[in-house]
Amino acid sequence: MTTLTHRARRTEISKNSEKKMESEEDSNWEKSPDNEDSGDSKDIRLTLMEEVLLLGLKDKEESLSKQPHPLAHRLQEKKEGYTSFWNDCISSGLRGGILIELAMRGRIYLEPPTMRKKRLLDRKVLLKSDSPTGDVLLDETLKHIKATEPTETVQTWIELLTGETWNPFKLQYQLRNVRERIAKNLVEKGILTTEKQNFLLFDMTTHPVTNTTEKQRLVKKLQDSVLERWVNDPQRMDKRTLALLVLAHSSDVLENVFSSLTDDKYDMAMNRAKDLVELDPEVEGTKPSATEMIWAVLAAFNKS
C-alpha cells in the first residue's frame, strides 16, 4: 500500500507540474516582449487572427467605388466593417495565423529535421500540449491536430482548415464561419460593433470599427517596424510583429496598413516588407532563435 501511495503521489505531482508549466507558458505569452510593444494597449490582448481581420476591415473613408466592378459606380454610399469582396487570400491567411498562434503559445511545433525531412514543408505538425487556450478557434484546431493520424504538414493543415481538400473524409477539419467568429471576438473586446448594411441587392451583417485607437495603434506598430524601427534582420525583429507582417502580406491586407503614408514612405515600407517576405524561409527557419512556424507558413503561402 505504501508503494502504491507513493506512486499515486508521484503521478499527481507530475500532472500538477505539467499543468503549472502550461499555465506559466500562457502567462509568459501574455507578458512576453514579443507580444507587446511599449505602445501597446495594456488591457486588450488580440490574437494574430484578430489583428489580421482588423487590418482587413474597411473603414468609413474607403468607398466601394474604388473597387474594379461593373456595379461599383452605383455604390456611392460609403460602407465599412467588412473585408473586401475581391480578397480571396484572407481565408487561408487567417488559418496560417491560427497555426502560428498555437506554436507561439507552446501548443504545437514542427517535427525535428532529419536527413530525409529537412524542408519546412516536409515536416509534420506535432502536438506539444492540448491544454485549452481559451480561444474557440485555437482549441478547435488543437482537437483536430490531436485526432489526426497520420500527422500532417503546415501546408496540408492550412488547406484542411480552409476546406480546400478533395478528400471527402477530411472535410470535417474545415473551420467554418471563421471571419464572423473572429469578428464576434472583437465585438466582445469592444473593438467592433455589429450592423446590418444594404448592398444593393442584399443585406449583410458588417462589423464597423468602434475602437479606432486600437486599429491605429496596430497600423502604427507595423508602419514603425519597417520605417523607424527597421533593423533589416528578421531575427532581431519582435516575433509577433514579424508574424503579423508575414500574415498581412499573405492575406493581401498589407497595402491597407501603408495606405496612409506619404508616397516616399509608402514605397520604402512596401519595398522593405517585400524584401522581408521574399527571404528564403528554409534559410531563415534554421537560424538561432527563429520561430520555425512563421517561416513554414510563409513557405506554404509561397508555394500555393
List the helices and strands and how they pair.
Blueprint: H1 2-31, H2 48-56, H3 90-104, E1 108-110, E2 125-127, H4 136-147, H5 154-162, H6 178-188, E3 195-199, E4 202-206, H7 212-226, H8 239-250, H9 254-258, H10 263-277, H11 281-284, H12 292-303
Antiparallel strand pairs: 1-2, 3-4
Helix pairs in contact: 2-3, 2-6, 2-8, 3-4, 3-5, 3-8, 3-12
What does this structure look like?
The chain has 304 residues and is mainly α. The protein contains 12 helices and 4 strands; from the N terminus they run H-H-H-E-E-H-H-H-E-E-H-H-H-H-H-H. The protein has helices spanning 2-31, 48-56, 90-104, 136-147, 154-162, 178-188, 212-226, 239-250, 254-258, 263-277, 281-284, 292-303, and strands at 108-110, 125-127, 195-199, 202-206. A two-stranded antiparallel sheet has the order 1-2. It has a two-stranded antiparallel sheet with strand order 3-4. A hairpin with a 2-residue loop joins strand 3 and strand 4. Helix 3 (90-104) packs across helix 4 (136-147) and helix 3 packs antiparallel against helix 8 (239-250). The longest helix has 30 residues, at 2-31. Mean pLDDT is 81; it is low at 1-8, 33-42 and 62-78.
